[in-house]
UniProtKB/TrEMBL annotation:
The chain crosses the membrane at residues 42-58. InterPro entries: 6hp_glycosidase-like_sf, Glyco_hydro_47, Glycosyl_Hydrolase_47, Seven-hairpin_glycosidases. One of its GO terms (biological process) is carbohydrate metabolic process. The active site is at E173, D305, E438, E481. Its cofactor is Ca(2+). Disulfide bonds join C378-C425. GO terms for molecular function: calcium ion binding; mannosyl-oligosaccharide 1,2-alpha-mannosidase activity. It comes from Macrolepiota fuliginosa MF-IS2. Ca(2+) binds at T568. The keyword Membrane applies. This is alpha-1,2-Mannosidase.
Length: 585
């Protein structure tokens, strides 16, 4: 399977990075060094002041010490409350979907991946695709009411699609994009075609769990129906990959009445529960034979992220009945607050750092802190707010936005942290294009002290140099995580400022990623308004980014948060009360 499609593909490169080369830092922001007050400068200052006042008036910027008007501090919000559909903006998102889909349909219908600049499709197997793009996108089409597109996609699936491909497919990606996509569209339409496909796929994957520990192998050969070890890391399993199959396999058991899928993924959770975890946080690698964690990085970015997301969502999926997940989630969020949350050294933005293992025998020095944050981490803000209004609420009725009295003390803590993390992710859009980079580093207090006024922001793109070939970290690949959090925050607060932010991000995507001839492409350097593009339109652009943007402007009654959980690929699955014994481990 082509590595470039994998969410967690960059771990090797990331793992190799450490230390911060201050000289390598490219600072895109201009530094004001002028000292003399010329009439021209006074005039420009006056214009700037007026502009700031106008921006503030229209809630396009915030001035913290002036923003005390809301009635429900200290649970922060700022904008005016709104609700209902914003038809014009919603329809603009639908138009973007059509612009993407029609190009794919014309150039590459049925291919797993799409390269919009060269107008080509490609497949993970030389024998043909498994419907990766079509299945990942089909529930978005359905929700958007695109009947013709939907009917053609369904026809393709019913007449031309098969999983019988003798090739190794990534367990995690296939589950979240393909199994999740099929189950979601099955739920929405009740069309048995999708359930048959989902069952066929899961049956082909089941042998991945035949390991000494029960942890799944990282690949499945769908044609041969067998589990396959990761060729680069034999015997190792990525933690997030093993713990982000549960919503999908459990729901499949629920609708088929066949417990086998559920039993397999629940076993994985019981292994995690029993294994020793530093501060209830999980290192990113496990051993498939022993079921134990390896001495490896602890982070909320790649290979760690959706473990935490699915702890909360497993609890929500089964209608808040399985308390083991609530306990694991609570403990993990305590660990996040104790060990991973850090403040930006210049402006005090909240970020989540990573812990790198030192392999020291001294338990006090087992990890060092790295102030690196993946775009992937931006799911966490919305997830924490969702946790605050459910796990962290005193009763089932939380208002919109929640009032202080409705939340427990950890609920209030998580709400505030979630809010702050979203602000940080929004701040990383403060680039030349308004798009956020794949990875940012934050200055340490020592660096800020050493460099003085040259540092104007909390974060930077490591290794970026003006005029040089852009570093990997500088790209925006149409990722959804920031808009996902913004959508969740909007649904839980009704604060129209989130709609404004989402719209602004969408406009940047329109301006810099949209291809005239059709489709959207990744941008290689978010700090260059003439950046080269990459010849790739990721499937998550259609399944996640556009779906969350669409729902941000759609009426709240569409996919209400108390009736659905989104899998980590934005496929909505319904909340249900399980008709089997509750998890007990
Ligand atoms: C990819 O697979 C699809 C579906 O099997 C097929 O229609 C298409 O021709 C394949 N594309 C390439 C480039 O091999
Ligand atoms: C929740 O709200 C309903 C209707 O508004 C009300 O009848 C009920 O008492 C509330 N429950 C709690 C626990 O506050
Ligand atoms: C969830 O549980 C509540 C009672 O605790 C029940 O009223 C509700 O119908 C359940 N929801 C679903 C979808 O099963």
């Amino acid at each position: 399977m082509e590595e470039s499609a994998l969410r967690h593909r960059r771990a090797e490169e990331e793992d190799a990075m450490n230390g911060i080369q201050v000289d390598d830092v490219y600072r895109p922001r201009k530094h004001l060094k002028g000292k003399i007050l010329t009439p021209r400068r006074i005039f420009l200052g006056f214009v700037a002041l007026i502009s700031v006042a106008l921006l503030y008036q229209y809630e396009l910027i915030r001035i913290p010490f002036l923003s005390s008007t809301s009635t429900w501090r200290p649970l922060p919000t700022r904008g005016k409350s709104t609700s209902g559909v914003d038809t014009e903006k919603r329809d603009a998102i639908v138009a973007a979907f059509k612009h993407s889909w029609s190009a794919y349909e014309k150039d590459a219908m049925g291919a797993d991946e799409y390269h919009p600049i060269t107008h080509r499709g490609s497949n993970f197997s030389s024998r043909g695709g498994i419907g990766y793009m079509v299945i990942d996108a089909i529930d978005t089409m359905y929700l958007m009411g695109l009947k013709d597109e939907y009917n053609r996609a369904r026809d393709w699936l019913s007449s031309r699609h098969t999983f019988d491909r003798d090739e190794n497919f990534n367990t995690f990606e296939t589950t979240i994009r393909v199994l999740g996509g099929l189950l979601s569209i099955f739920h929405l339409t009740k069309d048995n075609l999708y359930l048959e496909k989902a069952t066929d796929l899961a049956d082909r994957m089941l042998p991945i769990f035949d390991t000494p520990s029960g942890l799944p192998l990282s690949m499945a050969n769908l044609g041969l129906q067998k589990g396959v070890d990761d060729p680069y890391r034999a015997g190792l399993v990525s933690t997030a990959e093993a713990t982000t199959l549960q919503l999908e396999f459990r729901y499949l058991s629920h609708v088929t009445g066949n417990d086998i899928y559920w039993d397999k993924v629940e076993k994985v959770m019981s292994i995690i529960k029993k294994s020793e975890k530093p501060w209830n946080l999980v290192p990113i690698y496990m051993n498939a034979n022993t079921g134990l964690f390896l001495d490896s990085e602890i982070r909320l970015g790649s290979r760690g992220d959706s473990y935490y997301e699915y702890l909360l969502k497993q609890y929500l999926q089964t209608n808040q009945t399985e308390h083991v997940y609530r306990e694991m989630y609570d403990a993990a969020m305590q660990g996040v607050h104790d060990k991973l949350l850090v403040k930006g050294a210049k402006n005090g933005l909240t970020l989540t750092a990573e812990l790198l293992p030192t392999h020291s025998r001294d338990p006090q020095n087992k990890y060092t802190l790295s102030r690196k944050q993946d775009h992937l981490v931006c799911f966490l803000g919305g997830s924490l707010m969702l946790g605050a209004t459910t796990v962290g609420s005193r009763n089932p009725n939380v208002s919109r936005p929640p009032r202080e009295s409705q939340l427990t003390s950890t609920g209030k803590r998580d709400w505030k942290t979630g809010y702050e993390l979203i602000e940080t992710c929004v701040d990383t859009h403060n680039t030349a294009t308004g798009l956020s980079p794949e990875i940012v580093y934050f200055y340490s207090p020592e660096e800020v002290q050493r460099q003085g006024d040259e540092v104007t922001a909390d974060w930077y793109i490591k290794g970026a140099r003006r005029g040089a070939w852009p570093v990997y970290d500088a790209r925006y690949i149409l990722r959804p995580e920031t808009v996902e959090s913004i959508f969740l925050a909007y649904r839980m607060t009704g604060d129209m400022r989130y709609r404004k932010i989402g719209w602004k991000i969408f406009k940047s995507i329109e301006k810099y990623c949209r291809l005239e001839e059709g489709g959207y492409a990744s941008v290689l350097n978010v700090d260059d308004t003439h950046s080269q593009k990459d010849d790739k339109m990721e499937t998550f652009w259609l399944s996640e980014t556009l779906k969350y943007l669409y729902l941000l402007f759609e009426d709240e009654s569409v996919i209400p948060l108390d009736e659905y959980v989104f899998n980590t690929e934005a496929h909505p699955l319904p909340v249900f009360t399980p008709n089997r014994p509750l998890a007990n481990f």
